[in-house]
Amino acid sequence: MSQTIEQDIKNYINDHKKDDFVDNRKPLDRIFVNRDLRLDCIKYIGFDMDHTLARFQSPQYEGMMYDHLVTHLIEAGYPKEIRDFKYDADFAVRGLYCDKETGHIIKTDAYRNILSCYFGRKRLEKHDILKTYASMTIPSDDTDRYLHLRNVDQLCHACVLADLIEMFYNESYDSAKRPTISNIFDDVSEAYSAAHKERKESILQDKEKYVCNERIETAKMLDKLNKSHMKVFLMTNSPYWFTDDLMGYLLDGQLEGYKSWKDYFEFVIVEACKPNFFKKGSEMRELNIENGHLLPGKVESLQRGHVYYGGSVQQFYEHTNIKHGNHVLYSGDNLTADVTGSNDYEAWRTFLIIPELERDLPVWIESRTLVRQLKSLYEMKAGLYASQSLDAKQSVDASEIKKLIKDAREELHKRFGRAFGSTLSSGLKNTQYAKTTMLAADIYAYSHVNLANYNTFHHFQATYPDMPHRIIDDIPEAKSK
């Protein structure tokens, strides 16, 4: 008689040491997995440039953006004393919502329930939040009212908004001279657009200050990929003049065998206009890199060492002979342009860069005991209600355990060192940003160079969370009749 499946599994586990299956990479060097991904099935691997291959220093880069924003506001007529404003790197995080009507800056969980809310630099208590948001949620489809700050560049946007509201709407400011919330929001948005265009020249003027020094690590990672079965390409929304200068700084002269940064890539696409590239796109043109002009002829193929302008994913398939989107892995930092677009429309596999992990991971590791205690408190709270008799005349008193949960959540929040805590969590709850990451990104990591820590045939294996009904530890075994 053959052994049961359960016995076969038991024998396998008993025959193998648990230590044989431990990932010995440091947490910050790892790639984290939402969905299974086999690198040996990837034929093309692409990279965004800004905040991906070229990672910008924080808070220097964000502070530079903030200063540009303030300058444009002064030119637009705002008081010159705002020149004294300083960027606060410990205030905003990605994934926040800005309410254009009220000026509130809001952090939500995965279901858009409000976790924390600021008016200026004042954190509001729940009773104050309920005055404006009676359901403690924000709607998912009201994009006219709420601006979702998903990009690193937008952290300065949130800080300037908060600082202006703090200045104009405190008790001592003359109410007759203060601008409306709506006008502040429109003016900051306009100034942000101008600052975003100017940032490129500021970066190129002081690359050592604003660009992370990962040049040799980036070169070695790309070299490793080039020596594998995969073809490497660069696709960025930035113009060629900026791309050429920045990538030359990163890669030129780093490794023998590469005369130019372009030699690291099968081809280069600039001004791709993502996420539109993954929808309709535009007609792809080849760029004359000597004079910056677009060549008039039709692009028939993507040639090594050449630079192309615009295009669409359909032309990408045509020129690479790729038949299935899941043979392409694309890495970027922008949830909307790089990850959601490439995943939703064409099913490219996606690798999201989350620099905030450099700050978050150590906190989670150091707070393991507190996290376990918080999980236990939630389980005890659930059990407290679940075990209540149907004959009970009133609800159980859970005030003590609720207070302990609240205290634990606040302590965990403080450990992340920012007004809004972690980008990805609040207590044990995932944020809206984390939810989108889990839905859209197949894998994610702190930096693109983490790819060098894995074989080019590596199988990234996901772990899948249980639904509540599959947690059956507290269900007694069925008795045989």
What does this structure look like?
By secondary structure, this protein is an alpha/beta fold. Among the domains are: 25-55 and 211-353, HAD superfamily/HAD-like (Rossmann fold); 60-209, no CATH class. Helix content is 36%, strand content 13%. The chain is built from 14 helices and 18 strands. The strands form four sheets. It has a nine-stranded mixed beta sheet, sandwiched between helices. The protein is globular. The chain starts with a helix and ends in a 21-residue tail after the last strand. The mean pLDDT is 91.
Structural class, by secondary structure, is: alpha/beta
CATH superfamily of the domain at 25-55 and 211-353: HAD superfamily/HAD-like
Low-confidence stretches: none
Q: Write down the CATH topology of the domain at 25-55 and 211-353.
A: Rossmann fold
Number of strands: 18
* Number of H/I helices: 14
The CATH top-level class label of the domain at 25-55 and 211-353: Alpha Beta
N/C terminus separation: 24 Å
Average pLDDT level: 91
Q: Radius of gyration in whole Å, from Cα?
A: 26 Å
Strand order of the largest sheet: 1-17-14-13-3-9-10-12-11
Strand content: 5-15%
Task: Classify the helix fraction into a percent range.
Answer: 25-40%
Shape: globular
Which sheet architecture does the biggest sheet show?
9 strands, mixed
Q: Please give the CATH architecture of the domain at 25-55 and 211-353.
A: 3-Layer(aba) Sandwich
